[in-house]
Structure to design on (165 residues):
C-alpha cells in the first residue's frame, strides 16, 4: 500500500511508504508490525488502491491521489506506450513482407541495380538474394533507406513491423 505525505506549507510526497516514514523519523520507535498502524499523526495518509485503466497502445501511469470525503484514492493517467524495442535482426522473409506492406519491395531490385560501384552492387545483390537474416545496422539497409528517403525512425518502424510478421 502506498501513502501520501502531506506536510503543510510544502509539496505533498507521493508515493510514500511506511518504510519512508521510518527513515524520516529515526528517533521514533515504530511497531514491528505496521499493518494496522495509524500514520496520520505524521501527516501520512493511506491511499486506496484502484484499478488502472486500460486502453490499446497506452500505459497507465500513477499520478497524485485524490481525496474524496477524507479518503485518498489512487489516480491514473493514460499515456502513449513507448515503442517496442527495435530488433537487431529479422529474417529475410520478415523483411520482404514488411517492405511489401510498405509498398517498397518492388523498388529494391532497381535500387540495388542503381548502385554505381560494380563490387558494391554485387555485394548488395548477394546480400539481398542469399541472406537469411537482415541486420538493422547492415550497409544494405542504410543504402536502401537513403535511396527510399527513409528516416532512421521509419527504418526502426519497418524492423518492428517485420518482427511481428
Amino acid at each position: 500500500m502506498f501513502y501520501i505525505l502531506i506536510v503543510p506549507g510544502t509539496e505533498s510526497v507521493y508515493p510514500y511508504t511506511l518504510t519512508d516514514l521510518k527513515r524520516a523519523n529515526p528517533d521514533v520507535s515504530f511497531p514491528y508490525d505496521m499493518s494496522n498502524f495509524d500514520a496520520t499523526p505524521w501527516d501520512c495518509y493511506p491511499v486506496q488502491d484502484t484499478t488502472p485503466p486500460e486502453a490499446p497502445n497506452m500505459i497507465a501511469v500513477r499520478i497524485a491521489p485524490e481525496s474524496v470525503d477524507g479518503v485518498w484514492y489512487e489516480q491514473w493517467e493514460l499515456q502513449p506506450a513507448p515503442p517496442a524495442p527495435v530488433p537487431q535482426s529479422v529474417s529475410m522473409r520478415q523483411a520482404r513482407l514488411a517492405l511489401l506492406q510498405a509498398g517498397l519491395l518492388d523498388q529494391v531490385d532497381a535500387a540495388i541495380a542503381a548502385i554505381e560501384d560494380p563490387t558494391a552492387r554485387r555485394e548488395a545483390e548477394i546480400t539481398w538474394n542469399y541472406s537469411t537474416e537482415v541486420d538493422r545496422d547492415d550497409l544494405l539497409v542504410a543504402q536502401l533507406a537513403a535511396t527510399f528517403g527513409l528516416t532512421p525512425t521509419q527504418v526502426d518502424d519497418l524492423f518492428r513491423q517485420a518482427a511481428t510478421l
